[in-house]
Inverse folding.
């Protein structure tokens, strides 16, 4: 099985490291790759949408699992799919939507693999209703460090360590996933403005239960009385009766639009406080004060950035940091304080979203807990960014919150135990399952996972 030495980085493009890239095409090749990992071990990788260093392995092997990409069976009556871990959510949507089914959870991009969705235990706009991705996994096949393929089901320690375990318990080969029924590929969407952070949180708290999907874009450059102003977008899958007559002949058609790719080279300094501030002002002002029942394409509602291939290049060669944290209900003052600090710091972020999480998921390193989660993109070359985010980490940890490991690229390891109470259980199971350290990543080394 050929391997090539390449530079590997996350979607944020902040900390590339060199590794041997191996592309297994069969389960047998995957077993061989794991057994031949070498002294620096290996880590599975999907489509590279983890923002930080979770799917990197400096000096070791990275297993590109996208060659294992078969959909083996779709239970159209029961609503489930059995597929390889290298199948992307995009491919699943292409196969499932014409049959009246949708993936149960999708993040802001459909270009993630099923294995990556489980390893990061991804969440979407519907966490307050549906939880994270692993809650919908019926079973999975896991290749462990000793070369054994195990069937793993919910309710076991190995499943709970694997869901959100960032690929460190083994290589997911296949998964069976429950699906969401839909009648159309359009969304019925309500949009409204919130004048500040308190107004936004009040609207979400009072009415989120009416919607399957909910997210707020938040202007983190607004200050004073407008601090935390936002555009709130919520909706559900449109029923057939909501479609205009001309669209009812093909209600399950799925043809996402794509624009030209971002250029390979983007000048540094394009995303300044001035340019992002102008964008944020225009985005907020063009949003309706209140609009109900607008029909939107599924791809536009869930994955607007997927229409621009390689959009991460717009941050320039320095890349960007995606920072996402969650604090629990009753910790709203911490959220207010952090939003205020970001606004005063003038962090130029135009991709900033606030959501409410529902019940926690069973994964030991799964990110969501009931409460408020804020995610923002910041150019990595912003002066003093590291020290500033360290201070925010400390506030989050003191409030009993946590940061999302699938997006992290710079968290200090001393805060991890406070953020993830089951961390010692995860470490103990990993030591028992993989005493030789076959599965390892730059993230695992940095945080001593």
């Amino acid at each position: 099985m050929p391997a090539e030495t390449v530079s590997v980085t996350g979607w944020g493009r902040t900390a590339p490291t060199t590794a041997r890239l191996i592309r297994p095409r069969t389960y047998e090749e995957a077993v061989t790759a794991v057994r031949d990992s070498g002294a620096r071990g290996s880590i599975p990788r999907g489509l590279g949408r983890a923002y930080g260093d979770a799917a990197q392995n400096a000096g070791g092997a990275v297993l590109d699992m996208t060659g294992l990409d078969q959909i083996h069976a779709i239970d159209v009556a029961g609503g489930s799919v059995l597929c390889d871990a290298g199948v992307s959510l995009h491919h699943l949507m292409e196969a499932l939507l014409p049959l009246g089914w949708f993936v149960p959870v999708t993040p802001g991009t459909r270009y993630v693999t099923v294995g990556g969705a489980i390893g990061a235990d991804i969440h979407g706009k519907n966490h307050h209703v549906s939880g994270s991705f692993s809650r919908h996994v019926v079973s999975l096949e896991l290749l462990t460090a000793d070369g054994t393929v195990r069937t793993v089901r919910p309710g076991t320690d190995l499943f709970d360590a694997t869901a959100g375990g960032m690929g460190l318990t083994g290589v997911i080969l296949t998964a069976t996933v429950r699906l969401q029924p839909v009648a159309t590929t359009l969304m019925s969407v309500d949009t409204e403005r919130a004048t500040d952070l308190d107004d936004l949180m009040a609207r979400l708290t009072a009415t989120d239960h009416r919607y399957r999907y909910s997210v707020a874009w938040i202007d983190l450059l607004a200050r004073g009385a407008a601090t935390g102003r936002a555009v709130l977008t919520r909706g559900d899958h449109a029923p057939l009766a909501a479609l205009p007559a001309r669209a009812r002949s093909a209600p399950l058609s799925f043809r996402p639009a794509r624009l030209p790719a971002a250029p390979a080279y983007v000048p540094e300094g394009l995303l300044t406080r001035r340019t992002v501030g102008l964008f944020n002002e225009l985005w907020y002002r063009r949003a309706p004060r209140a609009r109900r029942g607008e029909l939107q394409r599924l791809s536009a509602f869930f994955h607007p950035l997927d229409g621009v291939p390689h959009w991460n290049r717009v941050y320039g060669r320095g890349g960007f940091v995606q920072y996402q944290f969650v604090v629990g209900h009753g910790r709203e003052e911490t959220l207010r304080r952090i939003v205020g600090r970001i606004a005063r710091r003038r962090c130029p972020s135009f991709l900033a979203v606030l959501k409410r999480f529902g019940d926690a998921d069973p994964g030991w390193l799964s990110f969501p807990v009931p409460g408020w989660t804020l995610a923002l993109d910041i150019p990595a070359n912003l002066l003093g960014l590291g020290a500033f985010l360290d201070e925010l980490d400390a506030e989050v940890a003191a409030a009993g919150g946590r940061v999302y490991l699938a997006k992290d690229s710079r968290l200090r390891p001393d805060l991890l135990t406070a953020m993830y109470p089951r961390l010692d259980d995860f470490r103990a199971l990993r030591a028992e399952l993989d005493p030789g350290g076959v599965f390892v990543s730059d993230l695992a080394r940095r945080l001593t996972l």
The radius of gyration is 21 Å.
